[in-house]
Amino acid sequence: MKDQHYLITSANVKMPCLIYGTAWKKERTADLVVQAVQAGFRGIDTACQPKHYNEPLVGEALQRLKAHGIEREALFLQTKFTPLPGQDPQQVPYDKKAPLELQVEQSFEASKKNLQTEYLDSLVLHSPITPHALLMKAWSTMEKIQKRGGVRQLGISNCYDTKVIRTLYMDSSVKPAIVQNRFYQKTSYDADLRNWCANHGVTYQSFWTLTANSHILASNTIQSIAQKLSKTQAQIFFRYLTQIGIVPLTGTCSEQHMNEDLSIFDFELSAEDTNNISALLKIP
Ligand SMILES: NC(=O)c1ccc[n+]([C@@H]2O[C@H](COP(=O)([O-])OP(=O)(O)OC[C@H]3O[C@@H](n4cnc5c(N)ncnc54)[C@H](OP(=O)(O)O)[C@@H]3O)[C@@H](O)[C@H]2O)c1
Description:
By secondary structure, the chain is of the alpha/beta class.
């Protein structure tokens, strides 16, 4: 089994440097989560959003892992509150007519029940809400949950405007510890936002990391580094991201890819290789 590597977030939470994502796995969710954790993953990302995630089957996986001696405390568990526009109207996991604050509370209770846990390590607002006052209503409920010990840290996802996270940061008493974003060319790889995050203790988690970057993986730069180090292009890209402080999510369904992804901590890229990949992404 490969060693999982960790970092400590600004909320003092020990978070794996590579996280297993559970979206789109439907009825295979429990088997794949068990397989991923047995392969060595210790971070799990899910959401209270039945349209894309089967949270109850993540909970079933946790019970099965417990029976194999892997306790819940050994895992970093992250879920999300998904505002109404992101939910399938036929399967909203909270009262869609309730005030937003109550929706956040109901969603969090549903997550705890689904995951069969007393606490979460990380609770993420799935997307910004407008206007700002409404976003703060959701966030202040998340703060209440954090302050009563329901969750250890808070975060926001799909937040591509630095102004939004800056204002949230200024107006909050529990600061965002993570941002989870699509990592792609269209947003210039969030260079400005990530710079702001780095200066404010906010860790950046990436998704769509491989799917949105096939041209990067196929580049001569990545191919030649992969060849030189006898690694796959995906391993080089994931390793690069962890070395520049990004925590990638991987939702692979392949045992081989799980093992390859976890193996990225067995090697290190030189400063020259890291700079060459940054140049490719036009990251300053
Ligand atoms: N916050 C949000 O709005 C949001 C949105 C999307 C996703 N997410 C989270 O991010 C997680 C990851 O999603 P993703 O969009 O990045 O895509 P993903 O589910 O990780 O898919 C990656 C694709 O790359 C392939 N792949 C090839 N080589 C691989 C390798 N070595 N390692 C891993 N995958 C490899 C996978 O195929 P194989 O299965 O054959 O390996 C898969 O088809 C999700 O499960 C979810 O938790 C969050």
